[in-house]
User: Fold this.
Amino acid sequence: MNKNKLHILSSGSKGNAVIVESGGELLLIDQGLSLKCFTGRCAAAGLDPARIVGILITHEHVDHINGVPLTACKLHLPVYAAPAVAAYFRDFGRYEFETRELTPQKPAQIGRFTVEPFPVMHDARDPYGFTVTLPNGERLTLVTDTGIVTQRIFAQLAVSEYLIIEANHDPDMLYRNPRYPADLKQRIRGASGHLSNQQCLEALEKLPHDKLKKVIFAHLSEENNSPELVRHSAKECFGRSAFTGESFIAPQKGPLSIPLD
Ligand SMILES: [Zn+2]
Ligand SMILES: [Zn+2]
Assistant:
């Protein structure tokens, strides 16, 4: 059996952790959960953390790396990150673990997975999205925490069968939210903030859909968005496009397991 699967353990500002599974190996992308919560969600998804081959880091915001040092140290896992983020981890000091530098110029082979990082636009040090090529040649691209869809991001989306893409907020809900100060609203909708539902769907509508099989909407704001709104807008968007695959909403409290086939 050579099954490929995706497991969303957590997605959103309270923590992000995604696992790609292939042939018994697990590749972890970000680990923003406590180790206890992480191992609990792995167990709920039927995953043995001992089979993880490495941790990829998108960027150093706390919702993506909160659990990384302890998890990497306890499970003896190498952490793959941009040079600036690897340096940030080395300055941590408290837990010992190995860091390996990843650059967009050099795809990395991590177990059965080929990993290509690419730059995204976010207010962090060298933030990355990732395209993971599975042993069968199919590609999964993860893009969250970006303020805009650059040409490079679009190119990565366009060659992928599976997408995890940010649908962070509805601009009207963000605009009307009385609990968010003006500068925070500005940060979220800025070019180095987060993708709105509209920005996400505009990019999806322009994609060639002959390859695309599954889309997972991720990093939804609990304050300025709702799964119903994303589902509704996505249905309209896909109605205008040639997309015939499936779409999912990544939960803050996972796991959600999705076969990659
Ligand atoms: Zn985030
Ligand atoms: Zn972030």
